[in-house]
């Protein structure tokens, strides 16, 4: 590279390390909402939630004061107007006092990953690099620092208390306000969801392996969350650059945009340039767990030649990412040499990138998958940093024709075996699932996963229920996501409209997340999760009382709801009108119902009801006296 070209590149990237700014759209508070913090047993446990203020019911409907509604909030400090956001500095430290108080970790003198050391010493990367990288923490010799290890020792950590408070969302106050006077009984398919989530229940679920708190000890900016079938269904959003486009700034913007709309975790699936630097910026600015697929970066290190991968290089990549603070790794350790031939007659073969990489390596060397043969060593790394496993489904079906075949279920059985090995090391583990599955085969996937993997949390990509809708796969997959979430899936990986077509932009990210928030919430309702119906009840009441602003603000996407309403009724006066443009003022069913109620009240219909009942009884007696004949001549 010429000196002139090198200087030009450095000049173009100076902005990132010196003048990077947060995406403006991600830091706007939601209308009529405020960030609240619920205090735990120690002063540094402050659990964020979003409280939506509601208008008073119009006097025509009784003038009732409506209690505010608390909703789950993944946006971190970005929507708190009292916090100054500077992505160059990263987010504030949440967890360091908790980690330090346990006394089982130590601060290293520097990075121990060889690749991490190389990147840190490369002067050409100074302009790209996050400027405030700290030396990482690691477990002391002989220590295990996973949440599962603590749970099995009977210890309730600060993280466990935090997620218990977070899952409840001030449920008792909502019950007292009457917002839960109506909630349909659910069908949980064997899940055991308590009426209130306690820290002890969280500890029990983690100890049993039914739930995980992805929380690397080096991701101290994290606001802890929990993934498990007995908790709220979570969603994941994918971001990441590719060799064809996107910058570090764009990926950080996608992160902050995604968590604004409800992404509970984010996976950085970067496969392009500067993967290490991109990931550092993302983690330092993320209040949600970050997951990765380490084999992607390992492949980039060997120039894309899968056959050149080695265990030593992969091991260094795991350490590199663990020291940065990655909370969970997708590792395709279930792609075994004997399963590869089972994919030959598939319509779409092996569609997982990680799965295809490992399959190619196995065939090139005619050896068993090195992540499988070195699995115990991987566990040793994971428990030194508390990185959770997301055991990858490298043989997932990529078309509904291939759903539930021998390759997919053979790998699932192996993932169950690996789960038990991980649990022997007290390493938190969840299982990844398909994929493309028609509706009638979805429950079999969930049932088999629960059986093979002993109820470890299931994390699925959809599944997509049909293959005929390119450009609309957020819908085809949202259908399957709602179903499998109801059946017991703990986390749903979003699919955007760009699935199979291209790299998603910000709008695609938002569309995918909102689609999957709908699916997850529908699953919570169907399971009968305590408090799931609070928001529905509040919004339905607002709708019936024509409190338009409350309808917008209680929705998952207030901006879109408001813009759709205002396309045809833009004036402020329309925000108090007792109709919308769908039916107009004369045909609104809710307006007509209100008029019927008003008429009934004015005419004392309750008294008329008595008279009607008396009249009907007299007619019935007359019918009997005349011979109880259905038809008679007149």
From TrEMBL:
The kind of enzyme this is, by top-level EC class, is: lyase
Q: Which residues form the ThiC-associated domain?
A: 29-106
Pfam families recorded:
ThiC-associated, ThiC_Rad_SAM
Catalytic reaction list: 5-amino-1-(5-phospho-beta-D-ribosyl)imidazole + S-adenosyl-L-methionine = 4-amino-2-methyl-5-(phosphooxymethyl)pyrimidine + CO + 5'-deoxyadenosine + formate + L-methionine + 3 H(+)
Keyword list, A-Z: 4Fe-4S, Iron, Iron-sulfur, Lyase, Metal-binding, S-adenosyl-L-methionine, Thiamine biosynthesis, Zinc
Where does this protein hold substrate? 238, 267, 296, 332, 352-354, 393-396, 432, 459
Bound how, and how many: what does the cofactor note say?
Answer: Binds 1 [4Fe-4S] cluster per subunit. The cluster is coordinated with 3 cysteines and an exchangeable S-adenosyl-L-methionine.
- GO terms for biological process? thiamine biosynthetic process; thiamine diphosphate biosynthetic process
Say which domain of life the source belongs to: Bacteria
GO CC aspect terms? cytosol
A GO molecular-function annotation: zinc ion binding
Which residues take part in binding Zn(2+)? 436, 500
Q: Which cofactor does it need?
A: [4Fe-4S] cluster
Where [4Fe-4S] cluster binds, per the record, is at 580, 583, 588
Q: Record's Gene3D superfamilies?
A: 6.10.250.620, Radical SAM ThiC family, central domain
Pathway field of the UniProt record reads: Cofactor biosynthesis; thiamine diphosphate biosynthesis
State which Enzyme Commission number(s) the record gives. 4.1.99.17
Q: Which InterPro entries match?
A: ThiC, ThiC-associated_dom, ThiC/Bza_core_dom, ThiC/BzaA/B
What family does this belong to?
Belongs to the ThiC family.
Could you tell me which NCBIfam families the record lists for this protein? PRK09284.1, PRK13352.1, thiC
Oligomeric state and interaction partners are given as: Homodimer.
Tell me, in a sentence or two, what this protein's role is.
Catalyzes the synthesis of the hydroxymethylpyrimidine phosphate (HMP-P) moiety of thiamine from aminoimidazole ribotide (AIR) in a radical S-adenosyl-L-methionine (SAM)-dependent reaction.
Q: What is this protein called?
A: Phosphomethylpyrimidine synthase
Q: Name the gene that codes for it.
A: thiC
